[in-house]
Amino acid sequence: MGYAAVSTCFSPAAILPLYLSTIFWTMIYDTIYAHQDKEDDIKIGVKSTALRFGDETKPWLTVFSAGMITNLTIAGIITDQTWPFFLAVAATSCHLGWQISTLQINNRKDCWKKFNSNQWIGAFILSGLFVGTLLKE
């Protein structure tokens, strides 16, 4: 929505991939978070992605990560981002790879650690956008 507010035109081609990337990101961190509460979810009957994906969580997180990275890249290309943005997307991809490969879905502390580490993804993307914008001027 911010892009539409500051640009001179409404560009669904730019907004849609960015929006999709945020949906994929939400699926990633929310599923990791949900693994902390799965025992409670079973007791009270809450249907969560942690319960739905179970032992297949890592493949699902990988698919969501690929969707996020692909859509961020598309959004960057469409909006003429510069190399710092794409470096930030690459750092995000590496971070997601680390999260997924080391995630212990049955360890609450590890799930919290991985969930909480998503703040770095926001920092990577924001930094890439900020530095990239400075280079455009």
Any overview of this molecule?
By secondary structure, this protein is mostly helical. The protein is 80% helix and 0% strand. It has eight helices and no strands. Helix 2 (12-34) packs antiparallel against helix 5, helix 2 runs antiparallel to helix 7 (108-116) and helix 6 (83-102) runs antiparallel to helix 8. The longest helix is centred in the first third of the chain and has 23 residues, at 12-34. It is elongated, with a radius of gyration of 17 Å. The two termini are 23 Å apart. The model has no long low-confidence stretch (mean pLDDT 93).
The helix count comes to: 8
Mass-distribution shape: elongated
Largest sheet descriptor: none
What's the overall average pLDDT, rounded?
Answer: 93
H-E string: HHHHHHHH
Straight-line N-to-C gap:
23 Å
Radius of gyration: 17 Å
Low-confidence stretches: none
Structural class: mainly alpha
Count of individual beta strands? 0
Provide the β-strand percentage band. under 5%
In helices, the fraction of residues equals over 70%
